[in-house]
Design a protein that fits this description.
single chain, 7 helices, globular, 217 residues, alpha+beta, C8orf32 fold
Length: 217
């Protein structure tokens, strides 16, 4: 995941009008926690890989789980409570990925980039992550792609090419091997084209989590 390169000017303009949004630069990696000693793989700015590794745990335990992609048509989505932005301010991601899990009738979201907690009840994560947007900033509203965790584990390929600019890394890569050969990551991110899973807007995601809608990702 990465801040949209064209997002600084447009989001700053939205800030001036609404006082709600601001874009921030890349934080030094040392300011963001990593865990290479326990079962959790975490590396900042590689959320798709963090979730790919994390998805193995609920699958092994027989729990229902989904990779939850967050983006939109413009690949510019505003999220609050992300550790890459100061408290109380939003950051503009091109995409983000979290892990949605169900145990009994309770849904939780695993998002190690969330400063509130890495695991929250799904409804709380939604409320904290996606604040109200003024009319001038509706282009930053989220869409979601739900992909069954076993499908995601089986089919994701990422050679990390999206994190390179020429010969330089936009953010240092994780120390573990890349996932698969080649890359189909952006097909998961693309909310406009049919691919694995199902695309929902925010209201439809809430309906799915409340059991009011049947979603067959």
């Amino acid at each position: 995941m990465w801040q949209h390169p064209a997002g600084r000017a447009s989001l700053t303009a939205g800030t001036a009008a609404s006082g709600l949004l601001r874009v921030h630069g890349l934080l030094p990696r040392t300011l963001l926690a990593t865990n290479m000693d326990g079962p959790t793989h975490y590396w900042p700015y590689y959320c798709e890989e963090n979730v790919w590794h994390a998805a193995a745990d609920p699958l092994a335990a027989g729990r229902v789980a989904y990779a939850l992609f967050v983006s939109n048509e413009q690949c510019r989505v505003a999220m609050w409570e992300q550790r890459a932005a100061p408290r109380g301010e939003a950051i503009l991601w091109d995409y983000h990925v979290a892990l949605l899990e169900r145990e009994d009738d309770d849904w939780t979201v695993f998002d190690p980039d969330c400063r509130v907690a890495e695991r929250l009840p799904a409804d709380e994560w939604i409320e904290r992550s996606f604040g109200p947007l003024p009319a001038a900033a509706r282009e930053f509203a989220p869409c979601f792609r739900l992909v069954a965790a076993d499908t995601y584990r089986r089919e994701l390929c990422s050679d990390r090419g999206h994190m390179r600019r020429g010969e330089e890394w936009r953010a240092p890569p994780p120390p573990w091997p890349a996932i698969g050969a080649g890359s189909n990551l952006m097909r998961f991110v693309d909310m406009e084209t049919s691919f694995r899973g199902r695309v929902l807007d925010l209201e439809a995601l809430r309906d799915f989590l409340s059991g009011e809608a049947d979603c067959q990702p």
